[in-house]
Amino acid sequence: MLSLTDLVDALGPGLLRLVTAGTGVNGDPQVHDVVLAEPGEAAGQPGELVLGAGVAGPRDAVALLERAAAAGAAGVVLKAPLADDPAVVDAAGRLRPALVELQPDTSWTHVVWLARGAIDRAYAPQPGAADGGVHDDLFALADTAAEIADAPVTLEDARSRVLAYSGRQDRADPARVSTIVGRRVPAQVIAHLRACGVFRSLARSSDPVHVPAGPDGMLPRLVIPVRAGGEWLGSIWVVARTPVPPDRVRRLADLASVLALHLLRLRAEAGVARRVLADQLRGALRNGADGVPVPPPWRVAALGGGTDGDLRQRLDLWDAIARRFGWHRPLLTDVDDTLFAVLTDPPGPRRDAGSMAWLRNVLVQVRAHDRTLYAAAGGPAPSPADLPRARSEAAELAGLVASGRLPAGTVLLEDAWDAVVVERARRAAGGPVPGGPVPDLRAHDAANGTAFLSTLAAWLDHFGDTKGTADALGVHPNTLRHRLRRMSEVTELDLSSPRRRLALRLQLTALEEDPATRNE
């Protein structure tokens, strides 16, 4: 399933903007196709997004919205500035089909191509299959650019990741070879480009950028920005041993417009694929449904730290970390506002990307820069039916880390099971308990400034050892004995029963973690 909001987000603000939400689940209708509005005919049907090609003014736009609402269509797309006309916005809010704004210089044909690519990916999510054609097209475009420039070419996204490259790379330099082999621009080359102001120019302008020769034999470059709706999507990089003639630069700029559509489609389909995968994983973690695309056994890890931002910021952070360290299709999803990763857990010392051993190694490296990052993993999940239990365990551990009762880093259930057991018992013991010595001792402490509760907790923690308890409290052993006698005078205190000692310690733990009593 693909919601209208997901489709708009996938195509990006360079093309589409949601003006008013429509009807559907939480005001977000599902979309399974896009159609062009035909004059005099019904405007779409349920699940269809109607494209208002040829709509000339507010009156025609309102009429199209009325027809779309009568047909139950998911929404209507109109070009700017018509989509922002007050009469049109008012009609959309009243009639309740969603209203989506399209950038004015965008072709309707391109919108159909991009939207249907994203929709096809959502409804037939075969991993890696849907974007294969787009990647093939990118390599063909790279070869076309190389023919125009008569020089080797790479196509890169806005993060300096190599998307495709042409032939003729034997005429390139070592920096280009490292870029292709590593699938991204080497750090020393990026430093040179930043020093030359290349990325600043690419982000702000559509003009070609000429880069002088750099260190370690780096040859000059001609860079053609790739933009759509003012958004910088990527670049065409030409190794220019000699200056590229102006007419060829213009042809490369024309090719950049074609490349922009392919990059938009690639991004849209990748975004939709991530949402579909997240939905599948969410179902697996909630209900034990099939939906994990890698074989068991698995681990479910709750991921946290790094930011106090919203879930989207946390997801972006961990997605970037995963991809940076080689997990190119990270299995991430959220359940109840907690971010989870589903990892493989094979036996042995292997650290394949996306495995539990890999994540432990990654955390060691990233925590050198951010000590708040952590991953809390539940027990092994050998089958889909075990995933909800593993998720619940991971969430419990994450709660303990977030509250400071466990340290950050990599936390495994088998290493912190005792904290989980105590926490579960603490929650159960946290309610009011009739009778027992704790209420009496607590009242005495509050009225007289004594430290009976902390004394009792220390005595229980040291198994009744007088010297160890006194040292922990920083008092003389005789002072401790006096306190114990006074406590027995205040309330009936039977410390000979193992069951009562356990019950007392659980009650004291519950009081220690209760914000209402922590500072008493």
From TrEMBL:
InterPro entries: CdaR-like_regulators, CdaR_GGDEF, PucR_C-HTH_dom, PucR_C-HTH_sf. Residues 291-396 form the CdaR GGDEF-like domain. It holds the Pfam family GGDEF_2. Residues 453-509 form the PucR C-terminal helix-turn-helix domain. Belongs to the CdaR family. PANTHER family: CARBOHYDRATE DIACID REGULATOR, CONSERVED PROTEIN. This is PucR family transcriptional regulator. The lineage of its organism: Bacteria, Bacillati, Actinomycetota, Actinomycetes, Streptosporangiales.
